[in-house]
Each structure stands twice: as structure tokens, then as C-alpha cells.
């Protein structure tokens, strides 16, 4: 699926540049300025036979150098997952003899692409990037300052979209160039199987498919193994890997910390606006697998037919099966679905509930959520005038008899907030983020908690600190992801503090340092870094408000 969105943005940029040139009223001034700008100014892009060529375990790859950062896109770390490889653990890619052209993004994993850009405002704000979709999707991207032996810390980014949607460049804020340059780090982003391709559990039907409920996670493990085996050739240190994800990516991070096969493949972890305290119980995920087989009108010895049918046909069958499963089980529309399962082998236990996985004992962690994961009034200015009684009416279906107490508790804890902001904060409550921090804080390695509250100026200030906004701050991309921040000096200043703190965390396991004091989290104090124009440490500012949920 292609979109004209990129062309539109490119034309918009070209138009802005043209307006800038037309501001010079004299042709002579234009020529003089152009000559001055051109002095010592070479190409920003380099690509050629002997430029940006690196060796890997499977063959050489050719990338390019853009603004001084060597970039490789779409490197295979696993084989095609279609046919007999569907529902199975990832296989090694077939080695190649020619130099592989790693100059364009790998295929997006199979997912529902219908009406992807139907919501114009959402498409504008998140500036989504989706192109070819294929089961041959096990690809990763690398940004590095140099192909040398410097042993830089390595960031591995796991995209959001729950366990069902997304890709490694879904948003421009995922781009690793600026972070690689600013922190002198190596940045890796990963595509892997999603939804019913990555998490449909057929182990209860045929033991041959024992891994099927977790193969999406095993893909990420395979990518981390590729990093371990190859990243030193890209200037990175295989002994210093940080995994980081947002939303569904944050949940993937939590699950990886509990997987034996991932142990030792990373050394620090960051979860943004998404956690996984518990995975899917085996009985439930296997029951959902039964529903898929029944919806396909197949018997228990015909799972191979699910492997051979076109992925879109299988995906539609699995989607219908999930709807029926939720209806029969009386689950909410976003309840149990295709996600990692506690199978006793690949995932031996729930990651952090009732107790933290012992595999994470030595892994320092950062947990961050945003004040306003949901902003109801972004495209509906009338909601800015809602009162607290109106907020309670809006939230009644979600919180039932506790609604009044919850809303009143947040209004008391944050008296300066408007009712629409109270609505947003209640709907975006950080119960799970704090529960993860409480669980993790009982372990040896420290955990650091942040709450992102920076408010962007767009939509007359109604966007607020929404879901996804903080990603580009961590990765020094606030000017690149201007549809989230507005761009300019103000977000850039906070981004500098956040990205530098993240680099310190990658290097030392401690994000605190010059320009930013960040204390480790302890349950007694609820130590929380409020990320705003001037970051400040506070002790659990919403503790009393959260008690209303219990």
C-alpha cells in the first residue's frame, strides 16, 4: 500500500524553501548569499562501491552515509516466514554472495492495512510510514557514526502498535540518525511478526507448533542474536545493549526480560507508555487457537493448510475467530488477543505479576509514561468547556461506581488542571507503570521512573502530552517529528536533556548527570522525574489520586 503523504510533505518543504529565497529582493544579493553558502559545502549523501560496506554473518551489505552517519536499512536477520515457516521459530537467512543493497526499509509485517490513513488528523499528527507488506519481514536497520572498532553502546528500538500493528519506521521519530550522532551510539530498529502471524498459539492442537504463541518475540530474540554476532562490525559493543520500546514496544521489552532465550542478549531496558505485568495464560491462548482452526473449518491434523493459504486469507479468518472468542468469553473489545503467552518454556512466567522475573534481576530499567496518553479534545474544541460532572458522565461506562471518587481524587490532586485535563489524566492513569516500578524495585538493579508532561502548542494546545510524543525527545528528533512538537528551540532544549540522560543510562545504567537529576525509584517515596521544560523530581505526585482506583 502506498500513500501520497510523503510527496505532500516534500512539496510543503520545497514550497517553504522557495518562499525563503523569494524574500531576497535583489538578484545580486541572492547570488552572493548562494556563493557564500556553497563554500566548502559538499554532498550530504554518499553511496558507492567502496562506501558504507560492512560484513555480516550472512554476507556483505551496502548502505550509505547521510550527514556523516552510516546507515543500513532492511538487513535480513531471518528467513521468509511464509509457508512452512509460518507459526514456527525464526530460521536463519540464506547467506548471499553479492553485496546486499541495504538502502531501503524492510517489508512491514502482515497486518490490517485497510483504511490505514482514513483519519486525516491522525495521519497528519503521527505521519505514519507504511509501504510493502510481506511475511518476508525479518529485517533490521542500523545507524552508526563509523564502521570502526570503537565499541559504542547499542540501542535496539522496538516499535509500538500493540502486538498487532506497526513497523520499525512507522513514525519519523523512530529514525536513529540524530541519536546516533548526538550520543555516539549505534542504533538498531527491528521488524518482526505481529498479530496472528506472531502470536496465535496452536500448541494445544499439535506439539509441532509448541512455539507458535511466542514466535513474534522469538523473532526479536533472533534480531538480538544478530546484534550480538554482528554489531561490532558496525562500531557497536555487543556487551552493552539497551532495548527500548514504546506502547506495545514497551510491553515487548517487559516480556523479553522474562524470556530465557533473551537472557544476556541485552543489558538495560526502557519501557515507554506500555508495560506487560502479565502475559496471556496458556489455556486462554490455546483456546483462541482452537477458535482460529474452527473458523477455518479445519480439523486438528490440517494445521498445514493454515500455513499454506495466502496470508490475507488466514489473517481474515483469525480476525473473525478473535471477535467470536471475545464475545463467547465475554471479554472487552480490546481484551485477550494475539499476544505473548506463558507457555512454561519460551516464557516460563508472567513478567512482573505476581513477582518480577528473576531473569531481570541485573537489568537496570527506565519506565516512562505521559500525562495525557489520551487527549479527548484534540480535534474537538468544544470539549474544552466540559465540567467535572460532564467528565464523570463520559467515564461512567469505564469506571462504573468508582467514577465519582476517581474524578474527584484527581481534581483534588491537580487543582490547577481543567476538567478536560482531569478527564485525560484519569483515562491515562499510570497504575500499570507504577505497578511495574514497584515490582522491579525489589530487584538488585535500579529502576528509574519518569512522567512526561511537556505540552505541545499544536491544535491550540489541545494535543497535550499524548501517547507517543516523548519518543522523539529521547531520540533527538523533535525537529524531525515536528507534527508532535511543533519543532524549534523549546522542545529541542528538553530533548537535549532527555537524550543525554538516555545515553548516560546506556553507558552506565544511571541516567542522572549534568543538567538532569534523576533518583532511582523506591516504592516508599515513589521517586518520579517530571519531564517538562524544567525537569524536576517529585515523590509520587498522583499517589493519592491513584488510590481511588483500588
Characterise the protein shown here.
The chain has helices at 5-22, 27-38, 120-126, 177-183, 195-199, 215-230, 248-256, 282-295, 303-308, 311-329, 388-399, 403-413, 419-427, 431-440, 471-474, 482-485, 489-508, 543-546; strands at residues 45-46, 53-56, 59-62, 64-66, 69-76, 100-101, 139-144, 152-158, 186-190, 236-246, 268-272, 280-281, 341-342, 365-370, 447-452, 527-531, 536-539. The protein has 18 helices and 17 strands. Helices cover 34% and strands 15% of the residues. The strands form 3 sheets. A 12-stranded mixed beta sheet has the order 1-4-5-7-9-8-10-11-14-15-16-17, with helices on both faces. Strands 2-3-6 form a 3-stranded mixed beta sheet, with no helix packed on it. The chain has a two-stranded parallel ribbon with strand order 12-13. Helix 11 packs across helix 12 (403-413). With 550 residues, it is an alpha/beta fold. The model is unreliable at 1-34 (pLDDT under 50). Helix 7 (248-256) links the parallel strand 10 (236-246) and strand 11. It is globular, with a radius of gyration of 24 Å. The protein has 2 domains: 53-280 and 343-360, Rossmann fold, CATH 3.40.50; 365-549, Alpha/Beta hydrolase fold, catalytic domain (Rossmann fold), CATH 3.40.50.1820.
Amino acid at each position: 500500500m502506498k500513500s501520497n503523504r510523503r510527496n505532500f510533505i516534500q512539496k510543503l518543504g520545497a514550497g517553504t524553501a522557495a518562499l525563503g529565497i523569494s524574500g531576497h529582493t535583489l538578484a545580486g544579493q541572492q547570488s552572493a548569499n548562494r556563493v557564500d553558502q556553497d563554500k566548502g559545502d559538499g554532498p550530504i549523501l554518499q553511496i558507492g562501491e567502496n562506501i558504507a560496506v560492512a560484513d555480516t554473518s550472512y554476507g556483505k551489505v551496502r548502505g550509505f552515509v547521510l550527514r556523516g552517519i552510516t546507515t543500513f536499512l532492511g538487513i535480513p536477520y531471518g528467513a521468509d516466514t511464509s509457508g512452512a515457516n509460518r507459526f514456527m521459530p525464526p530460521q536463519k537467512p540464506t547467506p548471499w554472495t553479492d553485496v546486499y543493497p541495504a538502502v531501503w526499509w524492510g517489508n512491514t509485517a502482515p497486518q490490517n492495512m485497510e483504511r490505514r490513513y482514513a483519519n486525516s488528523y491522525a495521519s497528519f499528527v503521527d505521519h505514519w510510514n507504511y509501504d510493502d507488506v510481506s511475511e518476508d519481514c525479518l529485517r533490521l536497520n542500523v545507524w552508526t557514526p563509523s564502521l570502526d572498532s570503537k565499541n559504542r553502546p547499542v540501542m535496539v528500538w522496538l516499535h509500538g502498535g500493540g502486538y498487532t500493528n506497526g513497523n520499525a519506521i512507522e513514525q519519523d521519530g523512530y529514525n536513529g540518525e540524530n541519536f546516533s550522532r548526538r550520543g555516539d551510539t549505534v542504533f538498531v530498529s527491528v521488524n518482526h511478526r505481529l498479530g496472528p502471524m506472531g502470536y496465535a498459539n496452536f500448541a494445544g492442537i499439535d506439539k509441532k507448533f509448541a512455539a507458535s504463541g511466542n514466535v513474534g518475540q522469538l523473532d526479536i530474540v533472533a534480531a538480538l542474536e544478530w546484534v550480538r554476532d554482528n554489531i561490532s562490525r558496525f562500531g557497536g559493543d555487543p556487551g552493552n545493549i539497551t532495548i527500548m520500546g514504546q506502547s506495545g514496544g514497551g510491553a515487548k521489552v517487559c516480556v523479553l526480560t522474562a524470556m530465557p532465550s533473551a537472557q544476556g542478549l541485552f543489558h538495560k531496558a526502557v519501557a515507554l507508555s506500555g508495560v506487560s505485568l502479565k502475559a496471556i495464560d496458556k489455556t486462554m491462548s490455546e483456546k483462541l487457537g482452537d477458535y482460529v482452526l474452527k473458523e477455518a473449518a479445519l480439523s486438528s491434523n490440517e494445521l498445514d493448510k493454515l500455513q499454506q493459504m495466502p496470508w490475507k486469507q488466514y489473517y481474515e479468518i483469525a480476525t473473525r475467530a478473535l471477535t467470536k472468542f471475545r464475545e463467547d468469553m465475554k471479554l472487552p473489545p480490546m481484551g485477550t488477543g494475539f499476544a505473548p503467552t506463558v507457555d512454561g518454556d519460551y516464557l516460563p512466567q508472567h513478567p512482573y505479576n505476581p513477582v518480577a522475573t528473576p531473569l531481570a534481576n541485573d537489568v537496570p530499567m527506565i519506565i516512562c509514561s505521559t500525562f495525557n496518553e489520551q487527549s479527548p479534545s484534540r480535534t474537538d474544541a468544544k470539549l474544552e468547556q466540559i465540567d467535572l460532572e460532564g467528565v464523570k458522565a463520559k467515564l461512567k461506562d469505564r469506571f462504573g461506581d468508582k467514577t465519582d471518587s476517581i474524578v474527584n481524587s484527581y481534581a483534588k490532586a491537580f487543582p490547577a488542571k481543567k476538567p478536560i485535563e482531569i478527564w485525560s489524566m484519569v483515562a491515562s492513569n499510570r497504575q500499570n507503570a507504577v505497578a511495574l516500578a514497584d515490582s522491579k524495585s525489589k530487584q538488585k538493579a535500579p529502576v528509574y521512573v519518569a512522567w512526561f508532561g511537556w505540552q505541545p502548542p499544536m491544535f491550540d494546545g489541545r494535543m497535550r502530552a499524548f501517547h507517543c510524543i516523548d519518543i522523539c525527545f529521547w531520540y533527538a528528533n523533535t525537529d524531525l517529528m515536528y507534527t508532535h512538537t511543533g519543532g524549534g528551540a523549546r522542545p529541542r532544549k528538553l530533548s537535549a536533556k532527555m537524550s543525554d540522560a538516555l545515553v548516560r543510562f546506556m553507558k552506565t545504567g544511571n541516567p542522572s548527570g549534568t543538567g538532569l537529576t534523576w533518583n532511582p525509584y523506591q516504592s516508599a517515596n515513589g521517586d518520579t522525574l517530571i519531564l517538562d521544560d524544567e525537569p524536576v523530581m517529585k515523590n509520587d505526585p498522583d499517589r493519592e489520586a491513584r488510590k481511588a482506583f483500588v
